[in-house]
Amino acid sequence: MAPLIPPAPVPPKGPLPLWKFVLQLRKSTIGIWGERAYDMMVFGGKRFGVATLMVNDPEGVRHISAGDTKGLYHKSITTRRLVRPAAGNGLVLSEGAEWKKQRRVLAPAFTPSAVNLFIPHFRAAAQQLLDELAKTPRANLAFAFQEAALDAACRTLFSMPIGGRGRRLAMLARAYVKGPGRPMIWDSLAPSESFLWFLTPGRAIFRRRWLKEVRGVVADRRDQPRHERATDLLDLLIESNDPETGGMTDAEIRDQVSTFIGAGFETTARVLFWTVYLLARDKTEQDRLRAEVRAFPPANVTTLADLARWPRMRAVLQESMRLYPPAPLYTRVSMGPDEVAGRQVEPGTIVMISPWLIHRHNKLWDQPSAFIPDRFEGKPQDYLTNPAYIPFGAGPRTCIGAAFSLAEVSIVLAMFLERFEAELDDDRPITPVSIITTMPDIEPWFALKPAPAFGA
Question: Does the predicted model carry a pTM greater than 0.85?
Answer without folding.
Answer: yes
